[in-house]
Request: fold
Amino acid sequence: MAGQQERLDAEATIKRNPHPDFQSVQDERPNWRNDVEWNFTKTREPNWKLGQGANDGGESLKKDHVEIDPYAEGRPAAYNYKLLISGIIPRPIGFVSTRSKDGESTNLAPFSYTQVINHDPPLFVIGFAASYENAKDTLKNLMESGECVINIISEHFIEAANATSINAPYGTSEWALTGLTPAPSATVKCSRVKESIFAIEGKLMETKEFESRATPGKKTGVMAIIEGTRFWVREDAINEERNLIDPGILKPMSRLGGITYGRTTEGMEIPRPEYSQASEREELKDLVKPKVAGQ
Reply:
């Protein structure tokens, strides 16, 4: 109970929702656009050349920057949290399914501190804003069972996925609260989300706990490294070689700051430049140097 209250207090401090009356704000906004489909555009400057710099004509150099010490006296740790989740965007969301070791309870929750970090073996990292002692449901289940499924959230079930962030007590399954459909897994005991177009079964490799800089001795975070043991992709989203997922089918949702999510509706393609070809061009020879002025 103490851990639950601590999390509630932290949420009140963060004030994630900036709207006292969210429904009235929502009512004034445009409806969801079903006609927005994935498409490619050109880059902002299709004729960009090596050495050209930013594509805004120098506008970004006219503004100064503010220096922020994350450990400045009187600066709450919650400020760093709000700053980081609003600046490191968009972030992929790991929609993580776990099951208690005895199989008596299941859990489903979204984590935007999620990323792929290697492909051979397939490795993923999930960050938890909690300690071992004050572990929430997902981390508790993951450490006890050593298993999880990382589901990717798409547009067609964003509301249901967001509902799993409800502060329900341990032992209350978010599955029933969302109406999402559990599907069997092949290498782990916990269910995957059948609505998810892409899902990854995983086994826990290791965890590392972190200590607060502002409050020495207080444990504030845990990083879990997961090895992917099986991939699931909906049949209409994968190519024949089973190595590319169509973003127009996946329609992934991302996390921005506060309570904001993002859609992925546009992309651009930029080939990687070849150094051997670029360095042979006469007009580029002056650009080849170990460092530039001001460094």
